[in-house]
Write a structure and sequence with these properties.
The complex is a heterodimer of chains A (200) and B (180). With 200 residues, chain A is of the alpha+beta class. Chain A has one domain. Chain A has helices at 19-57, 92-95, 97-105, 114-145, 149-154, 157-186, and strands spanning 13-14, 64-69, 72-77, 88-90, 190-192, 195-198. In chain A, the strands form two sheets. In chain A, strands 1-6-5 form a three-stranded antiparallel sheet, with no helix packed on it. A three-stranded antiparallel sheet of chain A has the order 2-3-4. In chain A, strand 2 and strand 3 (72-77) form a beta hairpin. Chain B is mostly helical. Chain B has one domain (2-178). Chain B is 71% helix and 5% strand. Chain B is built from five helices and three strands, in the order ααβββααα. In chain B, strands 1-2-3 form a three-stranded antiparallel sheet, with helices on one face. In chain B, a hairpin with a 2-residue loop joins strand 1 and strand 2 (70-72). Chain B is elongated and about 60 Å long. Classes of the chains: A alpha+beta (200), B mainly alpha (180). The interface between A and B is large, with 35 and 44 residues.
């Protein structure tokens, strides 16, 4: 049955895990992957810039700089010995979960409808904020646990556990749970007869 | 008026689910990251995955040996670590199933079935990644990080949605006061 132009689609288009949903999921995964591959480099620059801003906000003196380059976030400090190597953090591990978010938002019928597509980009904004925080934890975890005597001198046991534990949580559970939680919160679910619904 | 009420109640239940899910996820993470649990359960479990994957790879003609959590052949070696042992997807699935309003028996069935399905898929991941690493090493990194991690997590989300939308879960409607 076709839809008349100008007539609002009935609310509560129900998500069914059928062939069409599988097709949408696959298409969303592919589109998300293509977008992620195309825009990873500029995206990493924005994440590194925001994380650097947050890190320097709490540093006295502000010494950290983060440079996104060739799939890595290079960590530099103006008080590092000039000859010492600069640690590089793999960037893809941090933000590949964007692809998961795109695939999940594509599960619902009419994923490109303006309101749903808008919600997807709001969720992507939330995911960006999570990536920035995860990078802050990763850099602090590096400072707290990987720089030998310098780490011991500048970070106590509690601080080491908070930074390293926080980033480890992101690695093991958080980076997978974040897209799911954002999709759940912004996909606008309804439970009616225990079926999932996406109201219009 | 009643539609507005229903929407409000549904949103509240959805948010309660999300809060329970996140709390359970943190609790499960704390449990598996705790050194005694990691050493006594997670590491031997991961070594078991390596052993079974080794058997599968040998059956496929790869000629591998397994030591602890490491699988190696003449040309390639891989260490199975946390994040590649399916535990991360199982945590996500377990937290979602336990946060969802359903009778305990159904939750238990879901947990057992979901865990088995996730681990089954994880064997395919480990075996295929080893094959890619040994024969197409240029593709290993992207396959490992993006494709397979995403696939396993998406599978766990789909398993949860499939489980939660089965008609039997309707019994949970009686349980509505306790769920999202």
């Amino acid at each position: 049955m076709g839809r008349k132009k100008g007539v609002a689609r009935p609310r509560g288009a129900r998500l069914r895990l059928d062939g069409r949903a599988a097709l949408r999921l696959t298409a969303g995964f592919g589109a998300g992957l293509a977008f992620w591959l195309a825009f990873s480099a500029p995206y990493e620059k924005t994440v590194a810039g925001a994380a650097e801003f947050l890190l320097r906000l709490f540093e006295r003196p502000a010494v950290t700089s983060l440079v996104a380059r060739a799939g890595e976030i290079l960590v530099d400090r103006s008080d590092f010995p000039p000859a010492s190597p600069r640690p590089g953090l793999p960037a893809a591990d941090l933000h590949f979960n964007f692809v998961l978010l795109a695939a999940l938002f594509a599960l619902a019928p009419h994923p490109l409808e303006l309101r749903r597509f808008g919600r997807f980009w709001i969720a992507a904004g939330g995911l960006w904020a999570i990536h920035v925080l995860a990078l802050v934890f990763q850099v602090e975890a590096l400072y707290a646990t990987r720089l030998g005597a310098w780490s011991d001198a500048h970070y106590g046991a509690l601080a080491r556990n908070i930074w390293a534990g926080g980033f480890h949580f992101y690695q093991i559970a958080g980076r997978f749970a974040a897209p799911f939680a954002l999709w759940w919160a912004l996909g606008n679910f309804e439970f009616r007869n225990s079926k999932f619904e996406f109201p219009g | 008026m009643s539609a507005v009420k229903q929407n409000g109640s549904s949103n509240r239940r959805s948010l309660v689910f999300l809060a329970k899910f996140l709390a359970l996820l943190v609790a499960f993470y704390a449990l598996v990251a705790w050194n005694p649990v990691n050493d006594a359960v997670i590491v031997p479990f991961t070594a078991g995955i390596a052993r079974v994957s080794g058997v599968l790879l040998n059956a496929l003609g790869e000629k591998v040996s397994v030591e602890g959590t490491e699988i190696r052949s003449g040309s390639f070696a891989v260490q199975i670590e946390n994040g590649c042992n399916g535990v991360e997807a199982a945590l996500l699935f377990g937290a979602a199933v336990l946060a969802f309003p359903a009778p305990w028996r159904r939750r238990l069935t879901g947990l057992v079935g979901g865990f088995a399905a996730i681990q089954g898929l994880n064997f395919v991941r480990v075996v295929s990644l080893f094959w890619i690493g040994a024969h197409r090493p240029a593709l290993f990194s992207s396959s490992h990080t993006v494709l397979w991690q995403s696939a396993v997590v998406l599978a766990s989300v789909l398993l949860f949605l499939f489980w939660a939308s089965r008609p039997e879960t309707r019994g949970a409607e009686a349980d509505r006061g306790h769920g999202p």
